[in-house]
C-alpha cells in the first residue's frame, strides 16, 4: 500500500478496496468461464447458432466491464479525494 499524505487513516479503505477488487476479479472469471464453457461447445457442435454464441460473448464482456466499474463507486472514495485535494 502506498500512502499519500502522512497519515494511516485511509488504510482501512485501501484494504476494503483491495478485498473488493479480488472479489470482483473472481466474479468476472466466473462470468467468463460460464459463457465460454457453455456457448462455445454448443456453437461448435451445431446445437447453438454461432451468431447467438457471439452475442453471448459480447454480453459476457459487457457484464464483466459493468461489474468492474462498480469498484469506482466505492464508499468513502469521495472522502479520500476531498482529503487529498
Describe this structure in words.
The chain has 85 residues and is an all-alpha fold. The chain has 3 helices and no strands. It is rod-shaped, with a radius of gyration of 19 Å. The relative contact order is 0.15.
Give the helices and strands, then pairings:
Elements: H1 11-44, H2 50-69, H3 77-84
Helix pairs in contact: 1-2
What is the structure about, briefly put?
Helices cover 73% and strands 0% of the residues. With 85 residues, the chain is an all-alpha fold. The two termini are 20 Å apart.
Mean pLDDT: 82
Q: In total, how many beta strands? A: 0
How big is the Rg?
19 Å
Largest sheet data: none
Shape: rod-shaped
Helical proportion? over 70%
Structure classification: mainly alpha
Features:
single chain; mainly alpha; rod-shaped
Amino acid at each position: 500500500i502506498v500512502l499519500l499524505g502522512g497519515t494511516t487513516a485511509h488504510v482501512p479503505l485501501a484494504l476494503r478496496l483491495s478485498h473488493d477488487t479480488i472479489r470482483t476479479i473472481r466474479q468476472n472469471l466466473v462470468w467468463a468461464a460460464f459463457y465460454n464453457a457453455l456457448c462455445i461447445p454448443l456453437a461448435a457442435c451445431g446445437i447453438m447458432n454461432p451468431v447467438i454464441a457471439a452475442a453471448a460473448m459480447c454480453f459476457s464482456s459487457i457484464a464483466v466491464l459493468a461489474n468492474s466499474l462498480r469498484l469506482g463507486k466505492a464508499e468513502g472514495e469521495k472522502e479520500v479525494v476531498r482529503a487529498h485535494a
